[in-house]
Design brief:
The complex is a heterotrimer of chains A (176), B (386) and C (194). By secondary structure, chain A is an alpha/beta fold. Chain A is built from four helices and seven strands; from the N terminus they run H-E-E-H-E-E-E-E-H-E-H. Classes of the chains: A alpha/beta (176), B alpha+beta (386), C alpha/beta (194).
Chain lengths: 176, 386, 194
């Protein structure tokens, strides 16, 4: 199915749960609220003509610098192996107590990337069996991929990095 | 009284907890796994990762698009062209640039050579871990040839950064093309040689066949990709399902096996090496003439000789070198088929010359939790060959 | 022909004859005493001999971290053949190794483990920091990467490159051998062994 057809199908099947849709460069993208995520995900997986049985990735974005509401977003990339089509689910997440339900009951492959979301962005994944740090050391403070987390802890003399980073470097004392 | 009469063998076997890694005898990557062993059989395995977390995604969010390309080389360091390609394709999707045919063919050649080189490292180290030193030496012998070809065209053995946004870094050279022709004539006999050493080798079969079995449903459920998925009977290859860089023009097979064990994963990869060689052969034979990068001067540098005569070219040159490429606002995700599976970049652009968010879909990261399932099943069904 | 030239020629012939005589005598003596080198005695410090032995049998710990590890494997392999310098025996246990090649970037999570493995290696031990990342953090100046492994363990030889080719690593190895030989028999080496 093409992107338009997928979006039509999802809209027809779940009129209340879909906040918005988009078709950037022909990819089907749907916007969903966190509380509807599990319902939408189950529909996408179980509907025979959609049949999104393969979860490719789960990731997050911090829109702090874009100054938009809500601040965080979780992105789910899905495929259907039999129909070879794909869809992207974008879930807006509030800045206060960011939390999103797990989809690992539908696709077990979501366990790791969801744990990574907790580690890197600090999202609480409701219903995830193991809410602890995955990549960073267990005693690490902060969530590195948030935009207000400094890139470096050490100043360098020459850099192509964004300018505001140097301010952050100055405000945070070196760790050692 | 014999041992059997004493009932010693009937005693409940205690399991042993064993820590493997992060530094372990087969350190091809730092990875820790806590194993529960029943003799030689792994009952459960709990993976622990993050020892090589490099923070590249955060770095990429602070670098211009052109500076991200060397970063992508070092993500999966056995497949630098594939990572370059995934990043460039995503950026090009946001930019809406058309890539000339010749550049696409050169990209395909680079990626397929990288797939061969990567599979050779896998085969060599895998055989070494089982005790076959010879295969390791043989594989490296052929890998060095691919690395020499990389060096010829890009100047570097491993981290080529050859594929750029808008095309490739420079045109193919004659020694490179000749070298590839020699290599594709030379290589098939060598694959047969590896097969001769391993495929029917009783030790190899004993230690790979029927071990670590994942069924089709489990492989899909655990988001496996690439050879691991195809060994479980799923006919899924991004090169076929979502063709990119003109892969639809080449005729090649996607090897699929039904067993889902280590032996079938081995056979898939061996066959993939042959198919990759086939693709390189077709690409070399039909290498189209033309530009090696897009003529769009907002994306790629104008030719050097036009700078003296054209004011516009000079301005483009200055803008590109001092500012870099500005990518329109939006988000895109493009997957490619890497040696280990699906490699994809999810890029969010805020309209500037620096990406707002770069996320890599890494095949091995997604595949690691499958070990849980694998070991659980292994403990249920697999019994040690005597 | 003058008298002087005649005399000079005669003297030259005499000298030539003498030279040939001496050469014959030496050859005869060499023939007579062939193999007697084995019976001769050489005096040197034991430390020098030990250093000479150590430099030709460096056993690296298998410690591959990142991209450089692949080049390290290439160095040990058929084409580059580190065995020529006696450094091909990669040991999985740090207890059996005396050279650590830190090949690649060291993350904050890996640093304590790296230190532990270094501590487990028996003295005397040496460290090669392979590549830009291990030497100074390389292109990864960020929260996760230790900006140079020399903040965790002492380094003897730095090999630049990203990644350094096997030939560069071999050169680093030769430099380390030179360093071991130069240090052999000195107070520093004594301290290492103690």
């Amino acid at each position: 199915m093409t992107g338009e057809e997928i979006i039509e199908k999802v809209k027809a099947g779940l009129p209340d749960a879909i906040q918005d849709t988009a078709l950037p460069q022909g990819d089907a993208v749907i916007f969903v609220a966190p509380d509807c995520l599990q319902k939408v995900a189950a529909f996408l997986k179980d509907d025979p003509s959609l049949n999104f049985d393969y979860l490719s990735d789960v990731t997050g974005v911090d829109y702090l610098l874009e100054e938009r509401e809500p601040r965080f977003e979780a992105v789910y990339l899905l495929y259907s192996i039999d129909h070879s089509h794909s869809i992207r689910i974008r879930v807006g997440i509030e800045e206060e107590n960011p939390s999103v339900p797990t989809v690992s009951e539908l696709w077990k492959g979501a366990l790791y990337p969801e744990q990574e979301l907790f580690d890197m962005f600090g999202f609480h994944i409701e219903g995830h069996p193991k809410m602890e740090r995955l990549i960073m050391p267990k005693d690490w403070v902060g969530h590195p991929l948030r935009k207000d987390y400094p890139l470096t802890t050490e100043a360098v003399t020459f850099s192509y990095n964004r300018d505001f980073k140097s301010e952050l470097v100055k405000s945070k004392p070196p760790t050692r | 009284m014999s041992v059997t009469e004493q009932g010693l063998l009937e005693r409940d076997k205690d399991t042993m907890t064993l820590n493997m890694g992060p530094q372990h005898p087969s350190t091809h990557g730092v990875f820790r796994v806590i194993l529960e062993m029943d003799g030689e059989i792994v009952k459960t395995a709990e993976p622990e990762i993050g020892y090589l977390h490099t923070g590249i995604e955060k770095n990429c969010e602070n670098k211009r698009y052109i500076h991200v390309i060397p970063m992508t080389d070092r993500l999966d360091y056995l497949n630098p062209p594939g990572n370059n390609l995934a990043f460039c394709l995503t950026t090009e999707k946001l930019l809406g640039v058309e890539i000339p045919e010749r550049a696409q063919s050169l990209r395909v050649i680079m990626c397929e050579l990288a797939r061969i080189a990567s599979h050779l490292v896998w085969l060599g180290t895998h055989a070494l871990d089982i005790g076959a030193m010879t295969v390791f030496l043989y594989c490296w012998r052929e890998r060095e040839m691919v690395l020499d070809l990389n060096e010829e065209v890009s100047g570097v053995r491993m981290m080529t950064s050859y594929i750029r946004v808008g095309g490739v870094a420079k045109d193919a050279t004659r020694p490179w093309l000749d070298g590839i022709r020699d290599f594709i004539d030379y290589f098939p006999a060598k694959v047969d040689e590896y097969e001769l050493l391993l495929t029917n080798n009783p030790i190899w079969i004993d230690r790979t066949q029927g071990i670590g079995v994942l069924s089709r449903e489990e492989a899909i459920d655990w988001s496996l990709s690439g050879p691991a998925l195809r060994a479980s009977g799923v006919n899924w290859d991004i090169r076929k399902s979502h063709p990119y860089s003109g892969y639809e023009k080449y005729s090649f097979d996607v090897p699929v096996y039904q067993g889902g064990d280590i032996y079938d994963r081995y056979r898939v990869r061996i066959e993939e090496m042959r198919q990759s060689r086939e693709i390189v052969k077709q690409a070399i034979e039909k290498l189209p003439a033309g530009d090696y990068k897009t003529p769009d001067n907002k994306v790629s540098l104008p030719p050097r000789e036009t700078l003296d005569t054209s004011m516009e070219a000079l301005i483009h040159h200055f803008k590109l070198v001092s500012e870099g490429i500005s990518v329109p606002k939006g988000e895109a995700y493009v997957p490619i088929e890497g040696p280990r599976g699906e490699v994809g970049f999810y890029i969010v652009s805020d309209g500037t010359n620096i990406p707002y968010r770069v996320k890599l879909r890494a095949p091995s990261f997604m595949a690691i939790p499958g070990i849980w399932e694998l070991t659980y099943l292994a403990s249920q069904e697999y019994s040690c060959p005597t | 022909m003058g008298l002087i030239e005649d005399a000079a020629e005669r003297v030259g012939t005499e000298v030539n004859n003498l030279k040939l005589n001496v050469q014959d005598a030496v050859e005869a003596m060499a023939h007579e005493y062939a193999g007697s080198l084995y019976d001769s005695i050489l005096t040197t410090k034991l430390g020098k001999v030990v250093g000479w032995a150590q430099k030709n049998a460096l056993w690296p710990a298998t410690f591959g971290l990142a991209c450089c590890a692949i080049e390290m494997m290439a160095m040990a392999n058929s084409r580059w053949d580190a065995a020529r310098f006696g450094a091909e025996v990669f040991r999985a246990s740090p207890r059996q190794a005396d050279l650590m090649i830190v090949s690649g970037r060291v993350s904050q999570k890996m640093a304590p483990i790296l230190k532990q493995i270094y501590d487990q290696m028996p003295e005397p031990k040496w460290v090669i920091s392979m590549g830009a990342c291990a030497s100074c953090g390389g292109i990864f100046n960020n929260y996760s990467i230790v900006q140079g492994v020399d903040r965790v363990i002492p380094v003897d030889v730095y090999v630049p490159g990203c990644p350094p080719g096997p030939e560069a690593l071999l050169y680093g190895l030769i430099k380390l051998q030179e360093k071991i030989m130069a240090e052999a028999g000195t107070e520093k080496a004594k301290k290492r062994a103690a």
